[in-house]
Sequence to fold (61 residues):
Amino acid sequence: MKVSKYWKAIASAVAAGAGSLATALNDGTLTSAEGITAVLVGLGAAGVTWAVPNREPKDSA
Fold:
């Protein structure tokens, strides 16, 4: 299964941002600081995931 580093970065950004928003919405409200934090967490996760290279598959021969 080949997944490009771009899709991995997008998936990690969505997962991290959703986790941050779920925590922020625990009290039923979302402040601007919580929204900005969720965006920054998503961007950070995407950047870190994009920067790490994919591992080369081993030859099965």
In short: The mean pLDDT is 87. DSSP finds two helices and no strands in the chain. The CA atoms of residues 55 and 61 lie 18 Å apart. The first helix runs from residue 5 to 24.
